[in-house]
């Protein structure tokens, strides 16, 4: 909280003058000892100006508190304006965010546009090559980034946008920055927000604008270092797990759970991320806007089986690609892959995928693939097999075959995507119901609590559903 003081106007001390008053042989003398007695308020009409000035002072603290109380109850928020990291050029941001942490929107820069999607603490970006080059996002499958959704660390863009603009988190952050009672004035600023009479209120690091009309609502904020409140950052995890295998990826049973990358990500907790410079308008979105956001997310989720993962770097070890073939044309190809960590400061388990092509000019091509989760600093062996199914012959013939293997990443399997779609559908129904009823009911569980419970149940049930055939990864 800031502490601001108001200083009373300094008035000159004026001595009192008048005729001397005598009583007998003595005289009465008025002495001024560093102060004066101001009797001006006894004049007819005097004191009206002081009362008017007192009435004109609009204390900022209760106005801001009322607006932030209102903001904290919003089931969703729409953010539009300019935002930047440090000294970087600003983005034109257009975001819609639910209080479940689900987010969708765009960041428009001078040379590129980034589409942003986050759900269940999985952050995905879609952008063209110039953006990835500017972010030094080099990876074994970076050439596929322009055509794919890419999962990144939640702090890849700085302080996570879904946390920064979460209605309750934003209300808490601004409350911590707000003025003490009686220390600042809410000043009328009619031109700050188009179509709405607003008060401008000073806060640490900038200003916010609140509607003059009650109930007061947050309309705009201009903050130089907007970040995630400490309490919210402490609750966030590193986010994301390496996804388990789907049965049909290589026609094999899933590996044991201790090897399939389903454990929590290794490494220390994610940092809160660098703060944002932001000058944005804030409003509670319409029901149609929120419905459109969820419809878009559900459609885009269908593409996530082919999404790539940039949270850690993976690569081949020094071991050579191995191939073993037997009589009849069955061949097994093996390769060793390691998780080399990340420059982002957060190490994550990443699902590595090997796509193999075994070729012979006479026999043609046969393909197979395998994938496993790889923990930071560890390596795994990927293996898959093909079968040319050669017919038995009285005079066996030998064929020379070659194997090529391509290494890539996958962010989510078919099972995980199905779980995410189910979660989004549940959130959509809950939030649209809240918006239809004018906001969240304090007597009911909030959408955020419901989402967290669903997420925990999904995590507990994930291993149980791995043995089901849900289509697996697309061969891309």
UniProtKB/TrEMBL annotation:
Q: Where is the composition biased (Acidic residues)?
A: 182-194, 232-267, 440-476
In residue numbers, the region (Disordered) covers: 174-200, 231-287, 300-319, 359-378, 431-476
Record-given protein name: Uncharacterized protein
Q: What is the lineage of its organism?
A: Bacteria, Bacillati, Actinomycetota, Actinomycetes, Streptosporangiales
């Amino acid at each position: 909280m800031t502490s601001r003081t108001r200083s009373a106007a300094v008035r000159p001390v004026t001595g009192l003058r008048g005729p001397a008053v005598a009583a007998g042989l003595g005289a009465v003398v008025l002495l001024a000892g560093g102060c004066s007695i101001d009797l001006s308020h006894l004049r007819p009409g005097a004191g009206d100006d002081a009362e008017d000035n007192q009435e004109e002072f609009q204390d900022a603290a209760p106005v801001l508190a009322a607006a932030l109380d209102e903001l904290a109850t919003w089931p969703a928020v729409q953010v539009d304006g300019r935002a930047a990291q440090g000294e970087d050029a600003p983005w034109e941001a257009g975001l819609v965010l639910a209080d479940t942490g689900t987010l969708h929107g765009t960041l428009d820069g001078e040379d590129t546009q980034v589409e942003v999607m986050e759900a269940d603490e999985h952050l995905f970006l879609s952008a063209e090559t110039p953006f990835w080059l500017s972010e030094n996002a080099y990876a074994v499958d970076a050439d596929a980034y322009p055509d794919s959704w890419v999962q990144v660390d939640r702090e890849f863009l700085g302080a996570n946008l879904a946390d920064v603009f979460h209605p309750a988190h934003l209300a808490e952050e601004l409350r911590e920055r707000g003025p003490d009672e009686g220390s600042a004035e809410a000043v009328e600023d009619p031109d700050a927000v188009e179509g709405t009479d607003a008060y401008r209120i000073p806060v640490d690091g900038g200003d916010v604008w609140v509607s003059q009309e009650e109930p007061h609502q947050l309309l705009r904020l201009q903050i130089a270092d907007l970040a995630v409140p400490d309490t919210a950052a402490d609750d966030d995890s590193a986010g994301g797990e390496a996804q388990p295998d789907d049965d049909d990826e290589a026609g094999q049973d899933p590996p044991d759970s201790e090897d399939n990358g389903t454990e929590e990500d290794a490494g220390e907790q994610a940092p809160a991320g660098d703060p944002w410079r932001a000058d944005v308008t804030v409003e509670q979105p319409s029901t149609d806007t929120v419905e459109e956001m969820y419809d878009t997310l559900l459609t885009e989720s269908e593409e996530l089986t082919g999404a790539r993962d940039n949270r850690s770097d993976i690569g081949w070890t020094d071991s050579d690609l191995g191939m073993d073939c037997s009589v009849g044309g069955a061949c097994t190809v093996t390769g060793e892959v390691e998780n080399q960590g990340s420059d982002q400061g957060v190490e994550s388990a990443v699902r590595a995928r090997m796509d193999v092509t075994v070729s012979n000019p006479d026999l043609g091509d046969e393909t197979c693939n395998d994938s496993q989760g790889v923990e930071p600093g560890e390596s795994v062996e990927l293996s898959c097999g093909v079968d040319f199914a050669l017919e038995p012959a009285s005079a066996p013939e030998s064929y020379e075959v070659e194997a090529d293997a391509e290494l890539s990443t996958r962010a989510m399997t078919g099972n995980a995507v199905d779980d995410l779609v189910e979660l989004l559908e549940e959130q959509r129904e809950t939030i649209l119901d809240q918006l239809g009823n004018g906001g969240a009911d304090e007597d009911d569980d909030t959408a955020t609590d419901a989402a967290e419970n669903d997420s925990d149940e999904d995590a507990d049930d994930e291993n149980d559903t791995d043995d089901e055939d849900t289509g697996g990864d697309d061969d891309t």
